[in-house]
C-alpha cells in the first residue's frame, strides 16, 4: 500500500528561497515580519493564502509555483540547459534563429506596405473617375 505524501508548502518556500540565494531575514523584511516567523512558516506543511501570496511576491514567483514546486523539475531544467562556462556569455539554446524572425517580419511589413500603396492608387484612380464625370 503506497501513501501519497502531501506537498509541504513550507519546505517548498525554503527551497525556492535558497535557490534565489535569499536569507530568511531578507524574506522576513520583504513581507513585514521577523526571521523567526519565516522559520516557523518553512517548517509548516501548509500556509494560509494571504501569507503565501506575500511570500510568492517577495520570491518573485506565483503562489502556484510554490505549491507545485518540484526539485526534480528544477534539476531537469538545469541539466538540460546548455551553459558555456568558457565565456561570460551564456547560451541557452534558442530554438529559432532570431535573424530569420527579423527577416520574416521585414518581409511581412514590405508586403503590407505594398498592399497599402496599391489601395491608395486604387482610391486615387476611383476619385479621378468621379471627378471626370462631373
Keywords:
single chain, 134 residues, mainly alpha, 434 Repressor (Amino-terminal Domain), 66% helix, elongated, Lambda_DNA-bd_dom_sf, coiled coil, Cro/C1-type_HTH, Helix-turn-helix domain-containing protein
Count of domains = 2
CATH class of the largest domain: Mainly Alpha
CATH structural architecture of the largest domain: Orthogonal Bundle
Radius of gyration: 28 Å
Count of extended strands: 0
Annotated CATH homologous superfamily of the largest domain: lambda repressor-like DNA-binding domains
Order of helices and strands: HHHHHHH
Average pLDDT figure: 82
Structural class: mainly alpha
Q: Tell me the distance between the termini.
A: 93 Å
Strand content: under 5%
Tally of helical runs: 7
What is the helix content?
55-70%
Task: Give the CATH topology of the largest domain.
Answer: 434 Repressor (Amino-terminal Domain)
Largest sheet properties: none
Rough outline = elongated
Instruction: Please mark out the parts with pLDDT under 50 across 5 or more consecutive residues, or reply none.
Output: none
Protein name: Helix-turn-helix domain-containing protein
Pfam families: HTH_26
Domain HTH cro/C1-type: 13-66
Keywords: Coiled coil
Amino acid at each position: 500500500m503506497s501513501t501519497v505524501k502531501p506537498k509541504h508548502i513550507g519546505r517548498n518556500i525554503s527551497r525556492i528561497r535558497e535557490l534565489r540565494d535569499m536569507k530568511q531575514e531578507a524574506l522576513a523584511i520583504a513581507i513585514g515580519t521577523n526571521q523567526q516567523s519565516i522559520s516557523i512558516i518553512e517548517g509548516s506543511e501548509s500556509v494560509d493564502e494571504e501569507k503565501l501570496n506575500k511570500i510568492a511576491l517577495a520570491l518573485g514567483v506565483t503562489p502556484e509555483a510554490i505549491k507545485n514546486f518540484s526539485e526534480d523539475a528544477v534539476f531537469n531544467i538545469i541539466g538540460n540547459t546548455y551553459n558555456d562556462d568558457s565565456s561570460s556569455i551564456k547560451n541557452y539554446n534558442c530554438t529559432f534563429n532570431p535573424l530569420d524572425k527579423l527577416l520574416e517580419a521585414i518581409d511581412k511589413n514590405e508586403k503590407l506596405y505594398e498592399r497599402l500603396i496599391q489601395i491608395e492608387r486604387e482610391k486615387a484612380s476611383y476619385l479621378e473617375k468621379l471627378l471626370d464625370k462631373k
